């Protein structure tokens, strides 16, 4: 397939025309060798790597890359391996032109054809956090993620960010919520659900049977939450196809959704324009804002946008609410919340899934609240995990990064994508984690979600029950606990 040289040169000029854009693209591309090496060392550990161990990139430290992007550098250097059959000829040429324009900025891939064939031939590994390293649909090396990366390059190069790269200042709503039953409100919580696949449909069907008062999505619409319209994006309409069109019709105004790294790949345009602002959206209660506060008899459920203020250089993998002087931080401060009666919801995680390190996001939220929140539910990591309370992460090598909290911390990014039983979660301060193996795919686990039920007496909350469900069971929760009490 011959790529018109003028398309390649046009994209090169686009990158070179603005120093800040060029810098962002360079940082993103410089991140890829670290991601690739994370994959290489894991393949070596699992004894599936063939040949000598390559030298690591300069200044590489384990954990400095994301294994999710582990094959991207190889694909960029070997575009013949990319399946573009689902695109029109014009789209395919445009994708290849972007790749060709980036190549002069890329390091060489350390993965060769022999080792790439491990995945190409259909083999798989279960990563430390449970991620499925294979080319299975929606697994880590499904090439749809690579097209999402190309969308991120398009967004960055053409500066297509929603609201021109400035955090949207639409006033976030503060809503008093109430349930069908007096003095009780129930909320279904699901993360990383926007895949439009059978697993996602099964999870939502299970939620519909339970008939919660509200449903909250903790973000991620795949592959990059593309808007319905957009001249420079590939695979348009994902925000509709994988989120809005599959959302239960009876929950208009009773639904909430959060921003995520994947929706940022298309500049958050799909989220803000389609999900939050289009007519008849289930998320009308948010009034176009990506953060919100829900009040119930003294407790506040705080939904935060931890993606918009993330960074291109790490593909928005690390969450942030922005600077203390920023719009979102000031909004939270002005709410004057009691941290011990605040439950936080975000897409990004507050600490590593295996409890080995704390994210900068934790201190950002602690600072604006004045203390750690009562509870915090996040997605991003494709697993279902209930962490111990209190939680203590020891200091590493005397670096002063020890961490302790009495927050009830939970991960529930397991609503749609394939995942397995991650070995790094074993023997960690984890009270419960998803472990029910699928009957059809024994290496993988059932997808799931959580239910949160708050009850009050005399205008004050006196019971908070959390329940985790998965699609292996039609009736009973696989885990439950009354928060604030020792019973389960």
From TrEMBL:
Q: Where is the Calcineurin-like phosphoesterase domain?
A: 186-383
Q: Name one GO molecular function term.
A: hydrolase activity
Q: Which superkingdom does the taxonomy of this entry point to?
A: Bacteria
UniProt cross-references to InterPro entries, sorted A to Z: Calcineurin-like_PHP (IPR004843), Metallo-depent_PP-like (IPR029052)
Membrane-crossing residue ranges in chain numbering = none
Please report the name of this protein according to its UniProt entry.
Calcineurin-like phosphoesterase domain-containing protein
Q: What is the species listed in this Swiss-Prot or TrEMBL entry? A: Flavivirga eckloniae
